[in-house]
Amino acid sequence: QQFSALLDEGGIYNLKYFLVRIANRFYKPVENCNMISFTKWTTVEVVLQIPPCFFGLHI
């Protein structure tokens, strides 16, 4: 709940200290077998400047 105010759909973020788990069978907003879970140690940083080489793509 504490992270919903920090995250906007379509935004770019650096996330640290989260868990990757098997997706919940009852709530799957996307068709994927994995999901991430935030912990009390998770940090969220908004990316304001997209680097010229983002995900190996030259923008």
TrEMBL record:
InterPro entries noted in UniProt: NA-bd_OB-fold (IPR012340)
Spell out the protein name for this chain. Answer: Uncharacterized protein
Q: Which organism is it from?
A: Zea mays (Maize)
